[in-house]
Amino acid sequence: MNRFILTSAALFITLGTVLLLLPFNKLHTSVSRPQQALPVLLHQPGWELSNDNIVDALHSLPLTMPIRRVEWNEPAMSIDLIVSAPDTKLSEMYENIADLLSFSFSSTINVNQVKLRLVAEDKWLGTKHLLLAADVRREDWDSGLNGELKRTGEAPLSDLIKQRFHVIETILWKNQFGVLQNG
Predict the structure, then answer these.
(1) pLDDT tens profile 123-157
(2) Distance, first Cα to last Cα, the chain
(3) How far apart (Å, rounded) are the C-alpha atoms in residues 91 and 100?
(4) What does the CA dihedral 20, 21, 24, 30 come to, rounded to 10 degrees?
(5) CB burial readout 163-179, b (16+ within 10 A) else e
(6) The organism sits in which domain of life (predicted)?
(7) Cα–Cα nearest to 134, from 102, 167, 104, 101
(8) Whole-angstrom Cα distance, residue 125 to residue 39?
(9) Between 125 and 80, whose confidence is greater?
(10) What is the pTM of this model?
(11) Does residue 48 contact residue 29 with C-beta atoms inside 8 Å?
């Protein structure tokens, strides 16, 4: 009988101790949770992009073009945007590029370069073709130039934007969007 009482008492003391310590465990795990892995709802200046939060960050942007590929090699982000319809407007593409650049350079502290490609994708044939590429660096970007890009509409890119954003237009881009220069 003494063994049963002794075993029961030890069991109740152990269970009581565990129940008393549970609130402290919850407190400890909530304090030590990594903060950079939380979803991004608002992009505020001084935010640090990482492999842990890049998907959430890009998903929260108001992009209308799908992302085909993204790669993060600090301080450079490489991203491919898909142009899936041949009647996609230049203004839509320019706005997507401007939104992506604005996020990268206005809202983050550690993105110093964005390597961007617009890729035409034909789902029927399963082919992909490069239309336009840009290599934009933080020191070459400014909000005024970004605003000009957004306001370009259906016109060709200005020489200033092409120069500062290191834009390369393929022959396919020039043929598709009627910006092939004579000469």
Answers:
(1) 888 899 999 999 999 999 999 999 999 999 999 99
(2) 106
(3) 14
(4) -120
(5) ebbebebeeebeebbee
(6) Bacteria
(7) 167
(8) 36
(9) 80
(10) 0.73
(11) no
